[in-house]
Amino acid sequence: MLAFCFLSWVDVIWAAVPTLEKVTPETVVAGSEGVFLAIQGTGIDANTVVTWGVTSLSTTVYGSSAAVAVVPDGLVASVGIGAVSLENPDGSSNTIGVPVVESLAKELEPVLYVIAGLLGASAFIWGMGQRWS
């Protein structure tokens, strides 16, 4: 009986440290506003906080395997990699890197101009303020 109690106690202590399994979205566009991260893992409890690097994020926990966190706009203002992890009083999880990338719109603009010209089209590219005909 003593061995069974000991194993149960060890399992409870071991499960208290969170494990990060998935972060969604997997990439974020630099300059984005209002980015929410959906977190999946194990050992998540009411005291668990999602971190981006050394910054603790506003976190809402949804059971023992899910949470949502809000990333402040300043943390995704420029290109880089955000180190996302989970922390609670019992320890820290593994880290998953979330790339912060440039918008594809800048890279696609010349291609869209060529296609529109070849088709004799008139188009507007949202967010770029460009119009041609």
Task: Give a structural overview.
- With 133 residues, the chain is an alpha+beta fold.
- It folds into two domains: 17-102, Immunoglobulins (Immunoglobulin-like); 103-133, no CATH class.
- 23% of the residues lie in helices and 41% in strands.
- The termini are far apart.
- Mean pLDDT is 81; it is low at 1-5 and 128-133.
Number of strands: 12
CATH domain fold name of the largest domain: Immunoglobulin-like
Assigned CATH architecture of the largest domain = Sandwich
Order of helices and strands: HEEEEEEEEEEHEE
The secondary-structure class comes to alpha+beta
Distance between the termini: 82 Å
Q: What number is the mean pLDDT? A: 81
- Rough outline: elongated
Q: Indicate the radius of gyration in whole angstroms.
A: 22 Å
Major beta sheet summary: 6 strands, mixed
CATH class of the largest domain: Mainly Beta
Number of DSSP helices? Answer: 2
Helical amount among residues, as a percent range? 10-25%
CATH homologous superfamily assignment of the largest domain: Immunoglobulins
Topology, pairings included?
Blueprint (H helix, E strand, L loop, with lengths): L1 H14 L3 E6 L3 E2 L5 E8 L6 E4 L2 E2 L1 E4 L4 E6 L8 E9 L2 E2 L3 E6 L2 H16 L3 E3 L4 E3 L1
Parallel strand pairs: 2-10
Antiparallel strand pairs: 1-3, 3-7, 4-5, 4-8, 6-7, 8-9, 8-10, 11-12
